[in-house]
Amino acid sequence: MEHSPPPFFRRGPAPVVRLAFFVSLSLALAVLDARFRYADGLRGALALFVYPLQLAATVPVELAARVAEHFADQARLREENAALRARLLEASRAASQAESERAELAELRRLAGAAERLAVEATLAEILHHGRDPFARKVVIGRGARHGLKPGSPVVNEAGAVGQVTRVYAFASEVTLLTDKDQAIPVQVVRNGLRAVAFGGGASGMLELRFMAANAEIQAGDRLVTSGLDGVYPPGLPVATVVRVERDASYTFARILCEPAAPVDAGRYVLVLGGGARLAPGLEEIAGEEPERRATKKKSRRREPDAAR
Amino acid sequence: MRLGELPAEQRILLPARAGTIAASLAGALALAFLPWKPVAPVPDFVALVLAFWCVREPRRVGLGIAWALGVVVDVGNGVLLGQHALAYSLLAFGASALSRRILWFPLLGQALHVALLLLIAQAVAVAVRLAAGAEFTGWTIVAAPLLGAALWPVLSVLLLAPQRRAPETEPPQ
What we know:
The structure holds 2 protein chains of 2 kinds.
Chain A: H1 15-36, H2 40-70, H3 74-112, E1 122-130, E2 138-141, E3 154-157, E4 160-168, E5 173-177, E6 184-189, E7 195-200, E8 207-209, E9 223-226, E10 238-246, E11 255-260, E12 269-273, H4 283-287, H5 291-303
Antiparallel strand pairs in A: 1-2, 1-12, 2-5, 3-4, 3-12, 4-5, 6-7, 6-9, 7-8, 8-11, 9-10, 10-11
Chain B: H1 18-32, H2 45-56, H3 63-77, H4 83-97, H5 99-104, H6 107-131, H7 143-150, H8 152-160
Helix pairs in contact in B: 1-2, 2-4, 3-4, 4-6, 6-7
């Protein structure tokens, strides 16, 4: 006869069985997420639930910062005020100059029959927190799909390019920084117009120009700006400064290390540029693809293991 | 001998309330989502509090809660889904299985056991991440679980405080 314990003692399946169940569930989830990106729906739904917790966590930090600000001494504030006023003067002078130059440039472009570049719309976003993931360089910002953000949008701050939006939730988004191992950005050397692609250096917090010939015309101190060839970043944003060039005759490529122009650890606000960025004039016909399709293709390529190295 | 004179670990505690457990876990989640600087080794508060309740209340906090918490942490930190879920499931299993043994020790001995459990959980999370194609970030990641274990005595005193009853005074005869 079947013997079963009375309901009072019943404790469900054995612990080892339960462990096996949850372990296989986790592994299945990890594989789905890493290889096929099927889990994005679940991630989005859970992110809605996590968002209030994240907001609640930032409140005390913000409060502390505000209190500290309140008690900042008068002298420092006045000094800061004066410095800011000087910078405003400088900036307004530069702005008026840029205005006239832009008008002149538009005139020239119209004459040349080239496409006028659209003004890029931008969304201001606050950095909520740095991810606690030691393997990736990412930050979470407090603007999401509700504010019109789209995956793939470039993110900048006052010093230059910061990274790219990689995941968009309803009220928050995840920005992958330029220093992330899987992130790449097309750049151009200001001094001589040499084009290259800068890859993130991972834990070192630096950028690296890969696949540059050992005799490439580049030197320490060169400034790098976006070239705009990818159609994601608008051209001319500061990206990095070359700090070291190692040329070894036994390797085909030079090892070029650059320091990013825009450190995100310092600032709390970033600008997310909207869909106004376009390919450089003349490249639209060559690409001939929808921007969305290009974005997804790029993403899938990023996901692959680094076969090139 | 009167009840109030017993050493702390021998006093009989009130049963833990579900509200206390839920509040402490929510607090740990909020701590985990604080805007920490990425360089500092931050102990995993969620793992620590989870291990605490798995040791103290193995029949109420178990694998299911651990797994769900793991998924929430994965989403909140934007990491590979299932990485923390797997680590926390193993942590909860280990803590529940060892709970009788761990409670036999004084706080320092308990902390040593917990250090091992947290290290294993961290190692599992790292292994999942390396398998998914990340590069190893160096041995500083070992510091976080050790720091977490160092917090164990503080956490025990804090979380057991709601369960202590006021020392009873016998009416004078």
